[in-house]
Specification:
By secondary structure, this protein is an alpha/beta fold. The chain has helices at 15-29, 41-45, 58-66, 71-81, 91-94, 203-215; strands spanning 3-8, 33-38, 49-52, 86-89, 99-100, 106-107, 114-118, 130-136, 155-161, 163-167, 173-178, 182-189, 192-195. The chain has a single domain (3-102, 112-215), classed as Class I glutamine amidotransferase (GATase) domain (Rossmann fold). Helix content is 26%, strand content 30%. The longest helix has 15 residues, at 15-29.
Length: 218
């Protein structure tokens, strides 16, 4: 039976590109998957896996998500109580923080301790936003996450962001890249993953990451 993958539509994500990339990853890996973009909390609750994309300002994305009655509760129940596989992408990942500091202080979902702060590269020649290809390092001392076991270390992925996630716990930081200093690329714990990278724009590496998520059985 095909797994049901819900891509959450809250008016703040490039849903078509994400859904298409998930479909391509599933087809290439021979995984039977039914991918649907939805703004329905009940549809999300019935899914086997959820993907939360996000582009734009932190506060606007948080407000848009909470404007859908019952969606935040449905996502929290899915990820924290039922412990089903959950993937946040870009701002969708950042929303897992306790708060975001973009144009004010905004409350996040609070699933992973930390905050989202403005990029401040040590090299003054590096521009913000961080836009383009960077290597993703997965070799963090003592941290091995099963969902990432098939990914190559130092693979190149595509980034577009001006803010990044500062994890409060080292164990939640799964991947990093260098942009005038070490910045967060991948976070996660238990059944929850988040990527600052855009897998739908990251070609081979992005498809490998989505395939790993679809195969992952936490």
């Amino acid at each position: 039976m095909a797994e049901r993958i819900a891509v959450i539509d809250y008016g703040a994500g490039n849903l078509r590109s994400v859904a298409k990339a998930l479909e391509m990853a599933a087809n290439d890996a021979g995984i039977a998957a039914q991918i649907v973009a939805t703004d329905s909390p009940s549809t999300a609750a019935k899914a086997d896996r959820i993907v939360l994309p996000g582009v734009g300002a932190y506060g606007q994305c948080a407000t848009s998500l909470r404007s859908i009655a019952g969606m935040e509760d449905a996502l929290s129940e899915f990820a924290l109580e039922k412990k089903r596989p959950f993937l946040g992408i870009c701002v969708g990942m950042q929303l897992m923080a306790k708060r975001g500091e973009e144009k004010g202080i905004h409350q996040g979902l609070g699933w992973i301790p930390g905050k989202v702060v403005k990029l401040d590269p040590l090299d003054p020649n590096l521009k913000v936003p961080h836009m383009g290809w960077s290597q993703v390092s997965l070799k963090l001392a003592g941290i091995n996450h099963p969902a990432l076991a098939s990914l190559e270390d130092n693979g190149e992925a595509y980034f577009v962001h001006s803010y990044h996630f500062e994890c409060a716990k080292h164990g939640d930081l799964l991947g990093t890249c260098d942009y005038g200093g070490t910045i967060t690329a991948i976070i996660g714990r238990d059944n929850i993953l988040g990527t600052q990278i855009h897998p739908e724009k990251s070609q081979h590496y992005g498809l490998a990451l989505l395939t790993a998520f679809l195969r992952w059985m936490p």
